Amino acid sequence: MNATTNAFQMAQQQFDQVANQLNLDQQVREYLRWPLREFHFRIPVRMDNGLIRVFNGFRVQHNDAIGPCKGGIRFHPSETVDTVRALATWMTWKCAVANIPLGGGKGGVIVDPATLTNSEKERLCRGYIQQVWREIGPRQDVPAPDVGTTPQMMGWMMDEYSKLAGEYTPGVITGKPVGGGGSLGRTEATGYGVIYNLREAMQRLKIDPSKCSAAIQGFGNVAQYAAIGFTELLKGKVMAVSYWDRDDRTGYTVSNAKGIDPHFLMSITDQYGSINKDKAKAEGYQIEDANAWITKDVDVLIPAAIEGQINAETVELISDKVRIIAEGANGPTTLEADEQVKKRGVFMVPDFLCNAGGVTVSYFESVQNDMNYYWTNKEVLDRLDDKITTAFHSVYEVYEKEHVYMRDAAYMVAINRVVKAMQLRGWI
C-alpha cells in the first residue's frame, strides 16, 4: 500500500461516489459506510523457545443483510484495522455482485507468518479462534484464507472451533484442505475467476485473447492461476510476473521475451510467492526491479498482489498499449489512478467483480459442507464459470446503459442488491 493511501478511506470514497450517482438516502449511506461490528483482541502465543508473544488480531463484520458475513483472515506484518475494514466492505460488494447469499467480513493478525515455525503458526491460528469463536459460525460469519494464510491453517482453525463448539462444524471455515472438508477447485478459483472475467471482457471488446500478452503483479495463489489460465484457457502469453523476496525484503519482476512458463515458475516458488532468482536466471529469465511489470508493452495488466499498487505515481508507468486492467487483488487501484485509467480509455474489470471466484467457490464449499456431499473438480469449475459469466454481464449491461465506469457499474449492481435486502428485512 502506498504510504499516503488509507484503504478504508478509499473504500468509503468509492462508495460515496456511487451513492451520489444513485441518489442514495442519507440514512442508508450511514448504514453502509461503516461496518456493523468490529472485534479487536490480543492473542498470547507460547513460542517454541518457551516465551510468550502477544499478537494483535481483528475481525470486522461489515454487513450481513444478504447472508452470513464472509471473508478471509490475513496474516501480514503491515496489517491495520483500516485495511481489514476496507476488505470487509469490499467483501459485501463482492458477494452482492456475484449474487451469492453472503455478506462482508474480514480478519487479520499483525504478523509475518514467514517468521513463525509450523507449530507456532498452529498455536496462533488456534488462539485466533479462541478469541473470536462466539462471533463466527456457519450462520454468522465464515472466515477463509487470505494473504499469509493457507488451507492447512484453515484446517487448524476449523478444528479449534469444532472443539470449542462441541461438534464437528466444517462449514465454519472455508478454504480448508481437500479431505478435511475443503472443496475441489478452490485453489485455482480466484485466478480462474479473473480469467473468466477477462474472456468475457475480450468478447465484448472484440479482442482475440490468443493474440494478447499480459503482465501480472504478484506470484501467489491468485497470480499463479491467473497466469495458467491466461496461457492455457485464453492461449495468450504472460510476459512478466512480480514477487516479494523474503530474503531481500523487496520485490522483483521476472520476465521472459518469449513468455513465461507458469508451471516452471511455480515449481521454484515458495508458499509465500517468492521465486528462486538463481533457478529462474538459469532458464533464461530476466530479473528486473519491482515496478517493471507495470511498464511492459502488453495488452492486459493483472495486479494480483495487495492494495494501492496502481497509484498516482505508478499509473504514469503504464504503456499506451494496455487495453484492459483486470484487478486480481483487492483495491489495487487508487482513486487518483482510476481517473487516469478513465482518461486513457483503458477498460477496467474492477476488483470485487474480477476476483469474486474465490468467494464463490468458498460459498460452494459451504453448500457442500451442509449437504455432506462433494462435487467433482469439473462440476465446481463449471458452476464457477456460470456464476462469474452471469456476474460480468450484469455489470457490463449497467456500464453500457448508464455510460459509467465499470467500477461504478459494479458498485451500482452490488449496492442495489444490498439495499433491497435491507429493505426486505425491515432495516430501513
TrEMBL record:
InterPro entries: Aminoacid_DH-like_N_sf, Glu/Leu/Phe/Val/Trp_DH, Glu/Leu/Phe/Val/Trp_DH_C, Glu/Leu/Phe/Val/Trp_DH_dimer, Glu/Leu/Phe/Val_DH_AS, Glu_DH, NAD(P)-bd_dom_sf, NAD_bind_Glu_DH. Substrate binds at K70, K94, S362. One of its GO terms (molecular function) is nucleotide binding. PANTHER family: GLUTAMATE DEHYDROGENASE (PTHR11606), GLUTAMATE DEHYDROGENASE 1, MITOCHONDRIAL (PTHR11606:SF13). The active site is at K106. The record marks D146 as: Important for catalysis. This is Glutamate dehydrogenase. Gene3D superfamilies: Leucine Dehydrogenase, chain A, domain 1, NAD(P)-binding Rossmann-like Domain. The lineage of its organism: Bacteria, Bacillati, Chloroflexota, Anaerolineae, Anaerolineales. PROSITE patterns: GLFV_DEHYDROGENASE. The keyword Oxidoreductase applies.
